[in-house]
Design goal:
Blueprint: E1 11-16, H1 24-35, E2 38-45, E3 61-68, H2 82-88, H3 114-121, H4 128-133, E4 139-142, E5 166-168, H5 169-178, H6 186-189, E6 202-203, E7 212-213, H7 217-223, H8 238-246, H9 251-262, H10 265-271
């Protein structure tokens, strides 16, 4: 398609799954971009380790930034902050302290109206039958103090154990509802007070002991960096929201990369913005 355009775009931004790196489609893409005189940059990043976003999720994705070469040579990243370029290249050191606890993204007491409460105890709850059926599967079990969770895919809620993490409901309620006076400052200092922190992150479930649920749509949107004002129409089911979020992007990570691709730093400095 690109070779057929009379006025091809000056810049191109591509996001895909990590496996795209090894595909024939990617090889063809780079060949066409090179033929059309585009300068390209490729990277794989997750919101947990890219640009110190502090998001505790390892949604690794492939990104390609392409821009038309200037008459004076390469222009990609020209005049950009070296630290931002280093993050884009995956060369900046990971700052563990910058990663926020999952509690920042989970539903809190003030988020729970009657509808959301019913959702958490109903469609989002893992049943005893499901736990017994998949008793041999090691699930990624997330707690409020977790600083890493696995990728949520479009099959979340359907492909158990393969499409994303579960929330330990007892830990969630213990943290937010039994200890409602929590502040950010005591999340770290009081870690040893929680018995559920002694359990392994990846583990098989026991229907007689465990209480698990899927992440609520609002929690998934927060983990993907969507604004609190963004919401799905009421007629969209939880399963449909899982598919939509699983196929979406991590907003702040893409925004940082688009800044590198599109924003003219000289104009920003002149305008003072």
């Amino acid at each position: 398609l690109l070779p057929m355009l009379e006025c091809p775009p000056n810049s191109i931004f591509i996001e895909n799954v990590p496996g795209f790196l090894e595909s024939n489609c990617r090889a063809k893409l780079l060949e066409v971009l090179s033929t059309l005189n585009y300068e390209t940059f490729e990277t794989t990043l997750s919101p947990r380790d890219g640009f110190s976003l502090g998001i505790p999720n390892t949604r690794l994705r492939y990104f390609c930034l392409a821009t038309k070469r200037g008459s004076d040579g390469p222009v990609l990243f020209a005049g950009k902050e070296p630290s931002a370029v280093a993050f884009a290249k995956g060369e900046a050191p990971e700052i563990a302290s910058s990663i926020r606890p999952l509690a920042d993204f989970l539903l809190k007491p003030e988020d729970l109206d009657e509808t959301t409460e019913a959702l958490c105890t109903g469609p989002l709850a893992l049943t005893a039958e499901q736990m017994m059926k998949y008793h041999y599967v090691k699930f990624d079990v997330a707690t409020p103090l977790a600083k890493e969770t696995s990728t949520v895919t479009k099959g979340y809620g359907k492909q158990l154990g393969k499409s994303g993490p579960l929330i330990d409901v007892k830990a969630w309620r213990d943290f937010f509802f039994e200890n409602a006076d929590h502040t950010s400052s005591d999340w770290i200092s009081e870690q040893s007070t929680y018995a559920w922190q002694e359990q392994e992150r990846f583990r098989c479930l026991d229907a007689s002991r465990d209480e698990m649920r899927f992440f609520a749509p609002r929690e998934l949107l927060r983990l993907h960096g969507f604004d609190e004002k963004f919401d799905f129409p009421p007629q969209i089911t939880p399963r449909q929201t899982f598919a939509l979020v699983g196929n979406s992007i991590t907003v702040p990570l893409c925004a940082k990369l688009l800044d590198l691709l599109l924003v003219d730093e000289k104009l920003v400095q002149v305008s003072g913005q």
